[in-house]
TrEMBL record:
Residues 28-255 form the AB hydrolase-1 domain. Residues 1-25 are annotated as: Disordered. Keywords: Acyltransferase, Transferase. Gene3D superfamilies: alpha/beta hydrolase (3.40.50.1820). This is Dihydrolipoyllysine-residue acetyltransferase component of acetoin cleaving system. It comes from the Bacteria. Its EC number is 2.3.1.12. Pfam families: Abhydrolase_6 (PF12697). GO terms for biological process: acylglycerol catabolic process. One of its GO terms (molecular function) is dihydrolipoyllysine-residue acetyltransferase activity. The keyword Acyltransferase applies. One of its GO terms (cellular component) is membrane.
């Protein structure tokens, strides 16, 4: 088993975070998945706004942090986010991570458990070796809207109607100089040949904060069975007829579970 915890210095500029909602205690920190950006959380942030402050970051190599000097795997991003939270003088946060962002959130909790009040992981990376490496590598290299649409459809459940603007927006973002090459380099770090690096699940289960893991049965990126047989203290929520993008497919349910985990 390969450990995901290399030390890697980095830092996110504050312009790469969006904060919304009332300042009432520990905020919800939202970490997107591979190839995404902070905008993927807009619906969730809107739903959270009446009850919890939320902050969404662009991870290194994504969104407005595309040209950040140090990019890499989840360990690099975990160090970057951790330093940014420290700079923001946040001593307690509710971490929410999707896919690669789930692995990032888990690593932050492992490194600094006193910082994390709760951990909500949506189809997180690192919970098993299996990963659709071909899809992720093609997605990283795609730059035109038609190709992007074909690939993005595989990230969602079979019945989900993909909004046209998602593929167009993703293609526009990917067409920026260096964007595709940066994602391909990150893919090479998170994928070890044809498998992904893994997290110490027993160590995660031993952490003091409440942990929820959410997964869709139609996930074609990371198989749902990676959520099976988790230690009993980890609350596992499996959604039928749902793909890899739970926060976009089921925003109400995801928001409810985030707030529940945050004690709201």
């Amino acid at each position: 088993m390969t450990d995901l915890r290399p030390d890697a210095p980095s830092h996110l500029p504050f312009r790469d975070q969006e904060a919304t909602g009332p300042d009432n205690g520990a905020p919800v920190v939202l970490l997107h998945g591979f190839g995404g950006d902070r905008q993927t959380w807009l619906n969730i942030q809107t739903a959270l706004a009446s009850k919890k402050r939320s902050i969404a970051f662009d991870l290194p190599g994504h969104g407005e942090a595309l040209d950040w000097p140090r990019i890499g795997n989840a360990g690099v991003s975990a160090k970057a986010v951790g330093q940014s939270l420290e700079a923001l003088e946040l001593t307690k946060v509710h971490l929410v991570g999707h896919s690669m962002g789930g692995a990032v959130a888990a690593l932050i909790a492992l490194r600094n458990p006193d910082l994390v009040a709760s951990l909500t992981l949506l189809a997180p990376g690192g919970f098993g070796s299996e990963i659709n490496h071909r899809l992720l590598r093609r997605y990283a290299a795609a730059t035109d809207a038609d190709t992007m649409e074909t690939l993005l459809e595989q990230f969602f459940g079979w019945e989900f109607k993909l909004p046209k603007f998602l593929a167009r927006t993703a293609a526009e973002s990917r067409a920026r100089p260096g964007a595709a090459a940066t994602l391909e380099a990150i893919a090479d770090e998170i994928i070890d040949g044809s498998v992904q690096k893994t997290l110490p699940r027993d160590e995660l289960a031993a952490l003091p904060m409440p942990i929820k893991v959410l997964w869709g049965t139609q996930d074609r990126v990371l198989p749902t069975r990676q959520a099976h047989k988790l230690p009993g203290v980890v609350a596992t929520h499996i959604f039928e007829r749902t793909g890899h993008m739970l926060h976009l497919e089921l925003p109400k349910e995801v928001t409810r579970l985030i707030l529940q985990n945050a004690g709201c």
